Amino acid sequence: MTSARQLYQHIFKGITVYPEKESQAIAFMLMEHFLRLRNIDVLVDRPVPEGTVQPDWDNIIARLNDNEPVQHIIGSTEFCGLEFQVSSSVLIPRPETEELVRMVTRDYAEPDQNIEILDIGTGSGCIAIVLARFLPHVQVHAWDVSDQALEVARENARQLLADVAFAKQDMLNVTFPLAGNTQQFDCLVSNPPYVTYAEQEHMRPNVLRFEPHEALFVEDNDPLLFYKAIADFGQHHIKPNGRCYVEINEHFGAQTKEVFVERGYADVEILRDIHGKDRFIRAFWKK
Fold it and tell me: EC number(s) in its UniProt entry (predicted)?
């Protein structure tokens, strides 16, 4: 293909597993990533510069049609204006989670001394790294149970010049290096596993086949497992007047709220995402 429009048409028409608008967006994403050709270059039908080394487009199209996420093909994705490396070891950050991050940054925008935030289940590190970048007055900690995820997160922090203290921890069995550790945080934030296995039939193959199930799914008979663990942990490790923010399953909003209310949290709110779905809970620990 010798022009941007010809290349765009080749990619767009070759993608058959996504709706038209999504296929168009993927085609533009690929062209910008590999060739630095933008949407406007397609509109004006700019020639592809001579000597440009192009990837094997047919192979990429075949991978897309096999439901491999475009973010894995590119190796990265944008989140809150920053470029994050992703792999099959971590969830691909979603726009809804950007809303969670914006909520925390708004509430902690005022410079204060000795503010510490813990991101539980950090994955790619997207939440922790954005908070560290946008809130330079805050000390950010991040935990994950997966060594592979922590490797991705640490590399993202290195590339994005973010100061985050990463550690391997299992939220369902937290162990501190020293017995009796009383470390406390001003804020807990988490996007834990919350999709039940029963919901798999409604999910797309690119998620089911290529993203880590341990970061997605929770057993049908205990869908609030991680929220109970987070709320229990917060009872002992959130400072007085601290906060907890979690992303939730839209189908369990009231039940998740009750988890925090039962454990003594105050002003527990269910907040909706850009699509009008119950998506977040913010709770205060005032004891």
Answer: 2.1.1.297
